[in-house]
Amino acid sequence: MVTISLCMIVRNEEAVLARCLDSVSKAVDEIILVDTGSEDRTKEIAKRYTCHIYDFPWVDDFSAARNFSFSKATMEYCMWLDADDVLLDEDAKALMHLKETLDPSVRVVMLPYQIAFDAEGKPTFSYYRERLIRNGQGMCWEGAVHEVITPIQPILYGTAAVTHRKVGPGDPDRNLRIYEKQLAEGKVLSPREQFYYGRELYTHGRYGEAQKIFQAF
Length: 217
What we know:
Elements lengths: L3 E7 L6 H8 L5 E6 L6 H5 L6 E3 L6 H10 L5 E4 L4 E2 L2 H13 L6 E10 L5 E12 L6 E2 L5 E2 L5 E3 L4 E3 L9 H11 L6 H13 L3 H10 L1
């Protein structure tokens, strides 16, 4: 059986953190929680589940925080979740089965991410994300927002879905602020970053600017 470090970055997640950890804690061997500046009971709640709690100053870079969380992992695989994600009972069981059967030569496990639902709660939109990453293989998060790990073979596609259950509104301007801060500092956006920056401009009604970015992309 392979071992898993759950690696999370959190900030002011007292409303959802226990729900997340309750859903996954029995399926992982270690929980790494990196706090980027909570002012609520997030760390107090986290202490019920783990002693591996670290502070990391927020620098407008999700990859920096996620890479720090992965650096603290000691198990064979790093798994990431956001605080408003959950594993349904059947998916937690599927993750346990995956642990028991996974060939340790697999470097990346892609799992479904369910992010939209109908009135009955059935998923209407899901896609695969790199969810379990073989520790110590040099794979790192990239991108200040919409962060991603480029998978390397061997890759396995599994069935244990992660369900996104957002509670309350987020900050609709955060990603745009981060991109524009990077541009002001002279960063050249990668094609992937251009796409997401163009999308942020579009959703903020800045259509002329969005058009130019999409054309460059």
